[in-house]
Amino acid sequence: MEEEIKAEVSKGTSLLDAATSAGVQINSICGGEGICGKCKVIVDNGEVDVGSTSTLSREEIKKGYSLACQTWIRGDLKVTVPPESTATQGKILIDEDAQKFRALTSDGVGSSVKYEPLIEKHYLELPEPSLKDNLSDHRRIYRELRRKKNVPIMQTGLKVFKRSSSLLRDNDWKVTATLGRRGDTTEVIQLEGGDTADTNYGVAVDIGTTTVVAHLLDLVTSETLDAEAKYNSQMQYGEEVTRRIRHAEEDGREDLQETLANDINDLIYALVDRKGIRLKDVTSVMCSGNTAMLHFLLGLEASHIRKKPYVPNTTKPPPIRAAEVGIKVNPRGLLYFMPAIGGWVGGDVTSGVLSTGIHKRDQLTMLTDIGTNGEILIGNKDWMMSCAASAGPAFEGTGIRSGMRASRGAVDKVEFVEGDLIYSVIGNTRPKGICGSGLIDLVASLFEGEFVNRSGQLEPDDSDRIEEEKGELKFILEEPAETGMDGELAVYQAEIKNLINAKAAIYSGARILLKSLDLELDDLDQLLIAGGFGSYLDSGKAKTLGLIPDIPSEKIKFVGNTSIIGAKMALLSQQAYEESREISKSVTYYDLIDYPNYFEEFTAAKFLPHTDLSQFGSVGITEQSGGDQTE
Amino acid sequence: MEEEIKAEVSKGTSLLDAATSAGVQINSICGGEGICGKCKVIVDNGEVDVGSTSTLSREEIKKGYSLACQTWIRGDLKVTVPPESTATQGKILIDEDAQKFRALTSDGVGSSVKYEPLIEKHYLELPEPSLKDNLSDHRRIYRELRRKKNVPIMQTGLKVFKRSSSLLRDNDWKVTATLGRRGDTTEVIQLEGGDTADTNYGVAVDIGTTTVVAHLLDLVTSETLDAEAKYNSQMQYGEEVTRRIRHAEEDGREDLQETLANDINDLIYALVDRKGIRLKDVTSVMCSGNTAMLHFLLGLEASHIRKKPYVPNTTKPPPIRAAEVGIKVNPRGLLYFMPAIGGWVGGDVTSGVLSTGIHKRDQLTMLTDIGTNGEILIGNKDWMMSCAASAGPAFEGTGIRSGMRASRGAVDKVEFVEGDLIYSVIGNTRPKGICGSGLIDLVASLFEGEFVNRSGQLEPDDSDRIEEEKGELKFILEEPAETGMDGELAVYQAEIKNLINAKAAIYSGARILLKSLDLELDDLDQLLIAGGFGSYLDSGKAKTLGLIPDIPSEKIKFVGNTSIIGAKMALLSQQAYEESREISKSVTYYDLIDYPNYFEEFTAAKFLPHTDLSQFGSVGITEQSGGDQTE
Question: Which of A98, B147, B335, B568 shows its CA 20 to 30 Å from the CA of B140?
Fold first, then answer.
């Protein structure tokens, strides 16, 4: 399959340009900026000038690889383009409708905060120097910036200095400075010739234990341009956070660090590719996620999070250069983190508070973030307390044989109507699987239809859709002929039990937190339900399942993926980012394991809706209904 | 000469340790920290773990080089030690006495400033975390530091975070933090286990156009431990600053950057080697030098310094990591610069003011820094004005055939006694050459002895030590048989003219600055003479030559190498460093070329001592004495 192509180009041409002019397509996402590292080639012989090789590994350099965009021709040469660099690969993510459906919630973030992004661009027209005004180039830029804006202490890296003198003169003293907030100082992270102030993008990322979601923001208009989601590839190292921490202890932190950085890169690539944006114009990334994810992405030691007293390495890492952890945006672009609260209550909860405004209100609010690592917070403007309940990935459509992410083809709603179950599918296609909200609906409907009893056991006598397979019962929602998948769409007995365990973890966590605060359910003015499925959850079904407390529906509000909403607010508003730091300091962590009857509470919640039916009066189940109950 | 040595070591041993245990000496200056890059080896085959390769070039990696100290054995392997890595090379600099003589002036810096170095170490004993006190490791360290000291805003790099959790626990919560000032923030640049607070070193460097001097400081005791000097290897690219700038314009900035970084590394290696200090314990480097040198070391564009209005890229670069410009100390150690005043008045002048206290005194003072790039400053606590006079390297013992640096074997003093010239040699050896102060003395003595006339012409009829060689006259100070060099010690006609041009540049600069300020010589309360030869200069001779103004001797003070003294003060005192920033802002630059009669003033100064003898009444020369004069 090897083909030899000859071409003549002028000296100083980059190999990438030379290849293009010779009709050889080489992968490149960043547009020749040395960022994406996709345009690897091997110079077999000949003389070249080599620029940045920072995206290449030591092994690759030893094998003679260089980046086509960072290699300039000095004479006759022969170059091999390895197969991985030819531009025939498919898109990384193709599920375009899906993320529109679920990942991109219309949140009006842009209008809810004081607009002043963490990374701003300022166009400057500098006065030309004279003997009377012969400030250094460096101070001249600072002076002009300070005339425009009250910027705190400034700093600039050597790489920016190095290019600045020519840049100013080549562009007739008209340049655009990109300013990034780093704590109490401001960094001039980039200087560009001319006016580029209208080209400035940021990415907000919600790093969930199971799902990673990214939104692309136009930092000039504050608009959310697009969204993308994928499963967290770290799942290969364990579904639960503690398993992954143990993996890092045994095999090093690199696996977890690299898979997560790659996931984020995949999402960013998909977004910029679709929107026709250059990677170098993405100047900032804001991550929100639990504290372990923060450690994994930074390559920090997370071991001590999993052991009492659950001490993280850091909760508020300073912004660093995204490139430092392998995130490929502008090489000098900054990576921010939503400040975490403690080892088990992360920046996602801080985001939740920020985006819902709990910290500013009188009303006593409970915020429940339903995910693999469920978090519950109770409080108001005077105080806030939070705990974590490990639920596993059942809510996110994984960990079950027919599970899938909430995207095109996923069963997202199930109802028990006139003795049978009916369902709807995202995108109105044949079902390809079932997502988190669909699974919650399904199990609640099975219970309503009395196909499962209060302890979650399938009742084979009550439906011919319940069958046995290798000694395990399953409920067949759809026959193979009617699905878009390779076989039937079914839920198995063990999977139902898993979901019940997950909801028990969340519910008992909420209950213990209330009890430990000496509060009754009635004391709550509001219950906010956050999570990836957000507004798509049916609150009646969630109560039937016993996932959320039995509180009047008018007090319940679904608030969507507050982790990413908060991240976007902070990225767009220095003030919101500052607020998030205050929030993270003012929340107290409550350790559920410390509660004397933790295990009893958890066990009692492992029934539908609960052992103690008085806690779910509105669901209308009596001891008699719903089949057997083992106490 | 190749020899095959076999050895058995345990898995995980570094190649450096393995080599040592096998009796193979491999070069290493940093003690296995991956800093010095001297222990290069080639792994021919076998499995290894490779750590840092940051000191290796792309070409070296391609050839299979790795650092022996950063390569750990995982199984059977074969390694080749290239000849450049075997420890049989000579010392870089051997002239130990010399630098004691000249480079290390006893300046009492330690006692003259408020001791609080820019880089400090603090030993911390942290309380172990508990559920009640479960701050992150990061915040726990910050809290303890703030209990010890009022530290402004702090920041810590990812590399320090990464190791911190294990480090704290492995060392029973007892660690030493190294804090570095970076503008208005403080960086935790390093954490070490246990108490290492008494091991903290810094290096002050005076980067002269011709000579580079380094002093090693114990930052704990504020003592100067040792000093070292060498010629600036950039001389190969031009003796004068403008020539070097042109070299950078034509051939890129790398040559100048690398030679200077290498010179500084050579000096540092020599110092730490002699004192038995590990490179990793050198946490800071403070450079003082003219503005072009600052640009060269940072790899910045200096082109615009040489053209009106002489705009530098920067005068006050922020501290950066020394490793960023290839200076090999602690990999996270900081590189500071004395703030410069303008394109032609550098941080060396700021140092001069700082160390002499001109900016705090009522007395009107003139400071003359005699070097290749001579600088003159006049002022007091109310105002300061400065100019630059390019003198060339004659004052530093180079640019003349018998010239040498002020080190062992150099003629440093010459006197005209009873009709003949007598001289003294540093270290009382046979003369190997003549240094700057010797040359000044020599030419002044030749003039006193009437062996040269007022225009600097050798008078062959007046001495049998004046001979002709290839049409050029020379004065033979010592015959070949009596010197320690390969031939006679002589000074040539053109070299004498060069020195006279140099002194004319300095003198006319001083005179123009006075005139432009409407001041008379009598208005000066003090004349401070700074420079590498500092206190070794004879003021009578300097006046005879017309190098310094004819001012009463009691008003003249030799202040030594104020560039390095100021750098040391700033390194040892945050307050002094802050003061230096204020100084750099308060000095006005005066451009000599702007003076209407600049060329006339310069030409008039090209006689001994001057065309206008009334300016040198005390020298006692009349129109009749000293031979012919061409007007």
Answer: B335
